[in-house]
Design a protein that fits this description.
The chain is of the alpha/beta class. It is built from 3 helices and 11 strands. It has a domain of 127 residues: 3-Layer(aba) Sandwich (Rossmann fold), CATH 3.40.50. It has a 6-stranded mixed sheet with strand order 6-5-4-7-8-9, with helices on both faces. The structure holds inosinic acid. The site of inosinic acid has 17 residues, from strand 7, helix 3 and strand 10.
Length: 186
Amino acid sequence: MTSKASAGKEALPAGIDRILIPAPRIAGRVEELGRQISEDYAGRDLLLIGVLKGSVVFLADLVRRITIPCSIDFISLSSYSGTTSSGVVQLLLDLQKNPEGRDLLLVEDVVDTGLTLSYLFQNLKTRRPKTLEVCAFLDKPSRRKTAVKPKYVGFQIPNEFVVGYGLDFNERYRNLPHVGVYKEPS
Ligand code: IMP
């Protein structure tokens, strides 16, 4: 990735307008979430379900901050192409094991309209988990079209298209350690 340096600004990767959440703030918040989840799920059968691919970086950090026994599985849905949602969601990869009777925590990168989460909720409910909750790294409440509400949220953000820390634009920028606002190169 190439960098641009402008007067008074730190060098940012091309396509990044500004940093919204710096890496140290993310680390602090993930630690808090891990502590909270460890308390809330103590003595239960916690299964973290990462929604591919955007949640991978968040999940990897979060699980290392969880101090109680837990397991991980993954699910994959069709996602955005570019910066706009088609609103159509399809299951591309299913869980490896039956989650019936377990305490499921869906780990999402960002809840935007909520359409993806609604689909996942309905789908997973039919498999009779003991409990089903959501932990979203980012939340854009102003864009919501459904009633879904994550139990845990890393950061609430304004209605901007963001990348980094697992989030992509056309499969790029997932490797950035911070969350940045994406800007189409002019
Ligand atoms: P929703 O169904 O509208 O809530 O969209 C959820 C999915 O859209 C997320 O899991 C992301 O994959 C993608 N998405 C939504 N907003 C952004 C963004 O700002 N950057 C990158 N991906 C996004």
